[in-house]
């Protein structure tokens, strides 16, 4: 039975033992589609996160997807083109049930303005990374990544600890909303600015924000007191980051860490220029897109100038994956790329070993299934400090949103080993229902994103999108249940291509084969991508784990 959802009453959280579809595989994908809307930012408009990342093209497309998932057989494959179902093919029971291609625009045409035109005509939609692939699990999906970034900075600059340290950031949306909790879990005093009071209130309601300060003076006083007492705290503040960052700098305050996760990638549907209220922005989104783009870009220039000032004054400043430096450089900030990207600066050694944001969702809706898998994780990987530390923290701090889910950064072989044990637990009836395994698209072999994931690759292969395409084709031949290729929409048009995958552990021998093939090959390709680019960690992984990399003599 779907559970009532206090956040979006019309979008209940799926769950329960009863199937509406003809099998668990189809039911699983249906529940994941329902889940992304139940935790989405604006489900009435099918928007899940990242300004315009949608679960389906429109409501007619959504209805047809739901009907097809409910009635289709295991030997069929549903084709989805930019959020719209276009065909139901006769394939075979080992083929994926759903394959998708979302927002892939031919190179010379892949520009934000052309995307908006296609969007207006109803010909395309952007799936974000995980929205259109029905893999989004709320802000908890990026929380470990954000936490690991903060901890890498703590190790490098602050003796391994963020107690008594001040983090300044902005953006409390679908993904940015993870920052306050990640900062607090890392022990810091974190100030998060958002222009939209509703977003701040949402993050306070689920416990990610401790307090919302009434104004900047009060916010800085709360941060100052927490820093002096070395007390972890997350404070929200409603305001425009492009105005408030410079003001904080002018007061002579130098935070220890500065970043930003507003939707700066999208100058129309995401970023809010300073000096403009939300009502004006909403009306310009309809009939003043050019004016809005220019105002957003001018505002981002000020925003990034302030970030650069903080950097010069000694803050650790990084781009948190929202294209803010790229937008600023387009606006004339020649040194915007003095700010490093988080992937290259902190996480690349993990990605080079294909360690990345793996996750699983309890399709039963029962939190006890996730608790059982938490125990299993700790039993299986007792010496993996990242995992044992993370599971302890996650259990203590992260409230579930939508279907109970967990994210854990596991690598090659580890993901498969966990998933196979979970499939066996499902088979033995030790879990309340099947578990769906997935991962963020920001994963080793799965993404080409030259200003985010693949910036400054060792061999200069930043913009080569063959890897995610190979990944997707390989995952289809590896029997995954859902495979998707996404490219960028809005401000991301022309900037990225990624691949997503979902595999369902329903306890059957067929699921065992699917999980083994798909998850193993996915991370193997990740290791191969980095080995090919010459990363020592990947070459070591190839040796140690016997990854089938073909090296030219
Ligand atoms: P979202 O659209 O749900 O939220 C963006 C938030 O920014 C909104 O709450 C909005 O009110 C706020 N905002 C916009 N302009 C502002 C301004 N000038 N000052 C203050 N607040 C402002 O988006 P999201 O899902 O939270 O994603 C945010 C960004 O992070 C996107 O660019 C997204 O692509 C990127 N992202 C990065 C990662 C990563 O791995 N680092 C992962 C997912 C998303």
TrEMBL record:
Binds 1 NAD(+) per subunit. It is found in: Cytoplasm. The keyword NAD applies. Pathway: Amino-acid degradation; L-histidine degradation into L-glutamate; N-formimidoyl-L-glutamate from L-histidine: step 2/3. GO terms for biological process: L-histidine catabolic process to glutamate and formamide; L-histidine catabolic process to glutamate and formate. Residues 349-543 form the Urocanase C-terminal domain. Its cofactor is NAD(+). One of its GO terms (molecular function) is urocanate hydratase activity. NAD(+) binds at residues 174-176, 194, 199, 240-241, 261-265, 271-272, 490. It is an enzyme of class 4 (lyase). Its EC number is 4.2.1.49. The keyword NAD applies. This is Urocanate hydratase. It comes from Endobacterium cereale.
């Amino acid at each position: 039975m779907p559970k009532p959802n206090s956040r979006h009453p019309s979008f209940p959280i799926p769950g329960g033992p009863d199937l509406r579809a003809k099998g668990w595989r189809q039911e699983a994908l249906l529940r994941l589609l329902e889940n992304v809307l139940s935790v989405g930012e604006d489900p009435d408009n099918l928007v899940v996160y990242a300004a315009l990342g949608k679960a389906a093209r429109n409501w007619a497309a959504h209805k047809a997807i739901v009907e097809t998932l409910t009635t289709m057989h295991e030997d069929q494959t549903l084709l989805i083109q930019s959020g719209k179902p276009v065909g139901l093919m006769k394939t075979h029971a080992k083929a994926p049930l759903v394959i998708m291609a979302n927002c892939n625009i031919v190179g010379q045409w892949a520009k934000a303005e052309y995307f908006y035109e296609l969007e207006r005509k109803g010909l395309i939609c952007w799936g974000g990374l995980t929205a259109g692939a029905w893999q989004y699990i709320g802000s908890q999906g990026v929380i470990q990544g954000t936490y690991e970034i903060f901890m890498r900075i703590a190790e490098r600059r602050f003796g391994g600890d963020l107690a008594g340290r001040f983090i300044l950031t902005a953006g409390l949306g679908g993904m940015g909303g993870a920052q306050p909790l990640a900062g607090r879990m890392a022990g810091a005093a974190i100030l998060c600015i958002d222009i939209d009071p509703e977003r701040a209130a949402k993050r306070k309601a689920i416990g990610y924000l401790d307090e919302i300060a009434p104004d900047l003076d009060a916010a800085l006083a709360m941060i100052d007191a927490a820093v002096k007492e070395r007390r972890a705290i997350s404070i929200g503040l409603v305001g425009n980051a492009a105005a408030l960052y410079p003001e904080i700098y002018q007061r002579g305050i130098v935070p220890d860490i500065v970043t930003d996760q507003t939707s700066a990638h999208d100058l129309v549907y995401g970023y809010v220029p300073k000096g403009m209220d939300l009502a004006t922005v909403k009306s310009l989104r309809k009939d003043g897109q050019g004016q809005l783009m220019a105002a957003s870009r001018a505002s981002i220039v000020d925003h990034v100038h302030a970030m650069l000032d903080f950097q010069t004054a000694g803050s650790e400043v990084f781009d948190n994956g929202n294209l803010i430096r790229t937008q600023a450089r387009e606006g004339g900030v020649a040194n915007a790329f003095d700010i490093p990207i988080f992937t290259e600066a902190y996480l690349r050694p993990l990605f080079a070993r294909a360690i990345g944001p793996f996750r699983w969702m309890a399709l039963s809706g029962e939190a006890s299934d996730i608790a059982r898998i938490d125990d299993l994780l700790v039993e299986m990987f007792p010496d993996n400090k990242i995992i044992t530390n993370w599971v302890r923290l996650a259990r203590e701090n992260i409230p579930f949103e939508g279907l109970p889910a967990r994210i854990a950064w596991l690598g090659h072989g580890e993901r498969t080993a966990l998933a196979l044990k979970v499939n066996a637990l499902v088979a033995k009836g030790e879990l309340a229902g099947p578990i769906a395994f997935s991962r963020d698209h920001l994963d080793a072999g799965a993404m080409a994103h030259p200003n985010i994931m693949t910036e400054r690759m060792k061999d200069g292969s930043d913009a080569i999108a063959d890897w995610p395409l190979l990944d997707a084709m390989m995952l289809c031949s590896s029997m995954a249940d859902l495979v998707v290729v996404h490219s960028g929409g809005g401000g991301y048009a022309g900037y990225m291509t990624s691949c997503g995958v979902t595999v369902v552990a329903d306890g059957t021998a067929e699921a065992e084969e699917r999980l083994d093939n798909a998850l193993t090959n996915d991370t193997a390709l990740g290791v191969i991508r980095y080995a090919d680019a010459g990363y020592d960690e990947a070459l070591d992984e190839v040796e140690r784990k016997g990854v089938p990399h073909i090296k030219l003599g």
